Amino acid sequence: MTTFSEPTSHDYTEGASTIDINSALVNGTRSRRDSQYSTMYGGDGEGAMFSGPGHSANPSSVSRMSVFEAGRRSSGNWSQSRRRSRDSARPGGRSRRSSKGSQVSRQSVEGFDDTMSGEEVALMDSDDEYDGTGRRRRTSLSPISRGGVFGGLAHLFGRTTAETETPSRRTRSTSRRSRRSRRSDAGSDYALETDDEDDVERWGYSSGEEESDSDSLQSMAIIHDDDSTSPSVDYDLGPPSPSGGTYGIPLMSTDPVFGGEARIDMEMPFELRKPPPPGPPSRQTIYISDEDSTVRLIGYEAIAWRSWLWRAGCVMTLGLLGLLGRWFPRLWLRWVAQEKAFIDSIDGFVVIETAHRDLHLFPLRSLEYPYHITTAFPSTVPIDQVTTSASLSSMSARMKTNGIVPEENVLQRLLVADYRYSRFALDPRTGLFTIIRDWRDPSITALMSVQNGLDESIRKQRLLLFGNNEIEIEGKSTISLLVDEVVHPFYVFQIASVVLWTLDDYYYYAFCIALISITTIIVTLLETKKTIKRMRELSRFSCKTDVFIDGLWVECDSSKLVPGDVVNLSNSDFSLLPADLFLLSGDAIVNESMLTGESVPISKIPMKEEDLARWQDSKDENSRCMLYCGTRVVRIRGIVTPDGSSRPSLALVARTGFNTTKGALVRSMLFPRPIGFKFYRDSVRFIGVLAGIAGLGFCFSAVQFVRIGIPWHIIVVRALDLITIVVPPALPATLSIGTSFAISRLRKLGIFCISPSRVNVAGKINVCCFDKTGTLTEDGLDILGVRGLERHMQRFGELLEDVHDLPLGTGKATFLYALATCHSLKMVDGEVIGDPLDVKMFGFTGWTLEEGKIGTGVVKSKRAAAEQTALVQTVVRPPGSAQFKLEDALKGSAKRAHFLELGVIRTFEFVSSLRRMSVIVKRLKSTSMEVYVKGAPEVMVDICDRDSFPQDYEDLLSYYTKRGYRVIAIAGKSIEGLSWLKAQRMKREQAESGLQFLGLVIFENRLKPGTTPAIQALRSAHLACRMITGDNPLTAVSVARECSLINEAAHVFSPAFTRGNTDIPASKLEWSCTDDFSWKLDSYSLKPLTPPPHHTVEADEINYQDYSLVITGDAFRWMINHAPLETLQRMLVKTQIFARMSPDEKNEVVERLQSLGYTVLMCGDGANDCAALKAADVGISLSEAEASVAAPFTTSTPDIGCVLEVIKQGRAALVTSFSCFKYMALYSLIQFTSVTLLYSFASSLGDFQFLYIDLFIIIPVAVTMGRTLPYPRIYPKPPTASLVSKKVLASIIGQLLITSAAQIWAYLWVRRQKWYTPPPSGTPEHGNNLHSKNYENSVLFMVSCFQYILVAGVFSIGPPYRKSMWTNAWLMLSVGVLSTLNLLVLLSPPQFIGDLLNLMPLVLSARLVLLLAVVMNVVASMAFEEWGARRIAGLIGSLTKWRRGRRRGRKTYKLVEGGMR
What we know:
This protein is 35% helix and 16% strand. The protein is of the alpha+beta class and 1461 residues long.
């Protein structure tokens, strides 16, 4: 008998021998399959250490950004996503998933010659298909930032001059393709998976607890380029079309953006190219999993004589050709380089093209690498990478010529290309690239093979291949940063303008603009360097760790760790994990809040054989045994063997450096994905229109110049000057003014933003989704009490608020013991930690908890592995008994001393699809063991003896759930004679069957104080509100009514299966009213049928707002897969509560709403919300972290009131951006009008006049316009996001006509005055400068100065999105000071001001007439903006509707709503 050495520990193995224990340990840890609905919770299906939805979720960085993804559902295209629920696959069928890694040109292997002898390429079996990396592939494409690393950094820490987004780990793209899920042949993302690789007996089963240890086999998916297809070779072929076309649903006619107003598709198909040159491959499409993006690699080599010719052209054009080549790299490639096979591009480079047509050029580097080919590449070549373009002998000859593989498959050189801290290596056998981080060590076949660590020679090789274990951000020199900044088109345009103004003798103006530009560049450089420094400090980490090298434990720096190293966690001193590690032995508790935003400790268990096999097969790792880099260590504990000796906790290094989860997170911050916002696209187009107007104006002026006889060189200078007037250099900078002020105001409110571009998107929100627990309701649930069973009656007893009043019962399985043992709590530093619900339930009992020690056993099996599990996981004792020892209980005169101790022998962790957890418990000295199950009340009916339920079960359950309480059901049974060994071998389905119902635990679910006012404010603004929760539907309805999310008087209908279930297409759903089950909905139209006779209301009297829907996860999945399109759309629009939803289903709801045209905001608080937070257009995480990466917005105040602030600030920022852009555009057009009128007789504005307008009027007004605060209330209609909308265009064109009319009047009026004297002849004063001192100039200048201020007032939109401009003290001060100064210049200018501005003297009557004209201009402009613009826009809208038809162009959800009214 094996016992623990501690006096308070006892033998729960009941006489099992050490051999029996070891055997059970091995067999008991065989492939415990997870539920088909919860694969993302861990490879073994045991979730996290705590029960409750979401606590077993992977860190969001893994589930969205890194190497772990349970499969995303598509919402961008109905036809691609209708049949993708996890449970839509055929049971037992193999799902073939699209390639995850390198999708490449098809090629064939015909046979290597002597160079490859000894290890010919092994073709895979048709059922074993891999991609270039051997990894499963999601076919989504994702955008990659054009701004590069420093633009992304600047955005992350406050710089807002570019529009970028910081994605966290599972960032959603609005593109249909980017939302495309991994598909099986049957069209299911989540096909059930089987594994028949061996016939070793498994102790798992397929009912849902345990996950198959083998993922679906991967299919060959080749991305298609039509232009790259030749008769014999298909290059870059496309992914196979999803099957199940019978159920395909076409996407209705909606804008792929924000329903036609805001979002635009940032992804484009790769550019069509000519067929590649014959020979080895020169093109390749690779999917980068942790960036969720697809890139295309093309090999190039520069042609020497063309390169010299290009350099000569750059010199001859004074660098202009070089700038064009930098801005348009395709131009440079077309003229200088030619496409070349990768394997032949020894001195060439690789062009990497993103999904946005962005090109990045990377040189091919050659590393001295005298190691075997399998140390860097897979030992077998996937069939989809087998070459058809050249024979193996030809490839072999090329390799010999290039000196890559001299003999015996030992490489001499390794060709690599580093792209965004990801390394691609060229496989000489195929001539294609593979991602280095996807390489797996072929020598690892079992856990025993990794426990000996690595030799120093192998570590040297892997250090060369993978690099140091450092997340080291490369810092550019100041000169390099300066060059990158200066060659930006914005600054090049400013430099050209300064040069032009200098040639035009506008020295003062040119000097001031140059000074401002230099200051801006310096500030930007300092900010960028500061941001880089901060980012490097955040990402850097190193520590000392013990590594097993050459059979000895050696202390080394963590930066020298390589994949395959075995690390001693017990002896290593670190608080943060230095790499991604697989736990080999012992146990660990870590805090993954950096990744998930949720500070709940996560328990990690040792790696098992199937986990290693899964990892080696290039499939996703089991997150339950993976320690992610950067997560904080709460506790690491070694193991105690059955003989009492202790062993340290060991871990295997899986990934290092930027290949880790933390590295992927840092990369996502360095290279954020751009967000497509229609406002930004329209602004660029509008600038193009302005440039066109400049061209037209110059054509008119050029005719006048020629007629007057102005020299040609002056005409050219004037033409260029006119462009700088119409397209002001400061125009692009104004786009970020509103966003900058909004972010600053949000920060003061405790709301932090890591994605500035999402601020404007928040202005377009029209549906808000909320999690319930912890978001709408308080985090901590308080126990209201427990309801056990009466002793001799089949009904519930009274509500007991004190555990001491709870009777023990007659059987061995008691309610009290279940409360004390059925949990996954841990003890750390004397504190019980775990899920808050578990902590509350255990605290209710008042018992004490002690963790058991870990035992291990070693047995020779097929894989020769050592496994370990806990002999006793947890020991609990009633209060007051902890001080007794065994000898105290047994000694004395009493025949049997009372000593109560319960040991948890085995735990079946919480699984979201089963909605329950269970434990096997042994009472000390008892001859039996008890099984206790805790879970949702609905699931107990299937696993409990029906006779054990009280008669009032349904009534009492309905009573509590309808009043908003959270109810947990408890059941148990006793198994006589069950030994420890048999308990380890017991299947979950055996344990969780034939149970006796024991009672209910009722938790209070209190609303947060700010929930109801926030929901009421949102609903009064006509913003749709949705609740997406994992809780009971009746509880959710109660909470929704309490917080006014649903009207108190609204009838709520919920579905239930009357035939079949989720898996059966022919199932039938029936919608019944929750208050009266006899009242139904039409199953197709989802409209209420005739109410029962006792209802006073008729069916036709039920309005659209008088009823609502609540749906559960199982019905939701069935409708997604099998319901008619119209019914599905009506359900999505009408449902306000989505209950019993898993984390992946929450994400699905968000994406389905987006597909209907909604702009979705998601607010959540935990790891189970991460996927939905990232999928939403605006995600808000209620997290304590200042910049949690779980969502674009985080708030330190856990209250949904932050939603109101984000929406208000978003609308204010969007309106401000419009106002500033319209102001800058009209300012340039006003100045353009003045200059064009002056050009008609060869005159222009003077140097100081330009200076006065641009510096003293425009800049102060443009900056202070953005300081207007948002309006306190949210207006029911969101602002427009399109610059080409009828309202915006009507406003701009109307104001332009009014101001131009005023200037033309002044121009003609002054010429008719008696005191008017004509200007001098058209000959320039000196150089290129035109005459500026004349009456026309003075009149136009004085009138236009007021117009610049007037337009600021007109475009400073106040209510309903911003407060009135009168509340903006800075703007009013600027307007007041400038208006006063303008009045002074108009009525009585001091002599020095008149001379400085080249003003002509005017009589007082003329000045008063001009003042009257200015006043009339003000009145006309204000009146038009208030009444005229709206009416004209309305008239245009009516004409458009009449011409196009009333229903065309409307968003899908509006069409659906209209059909249901």
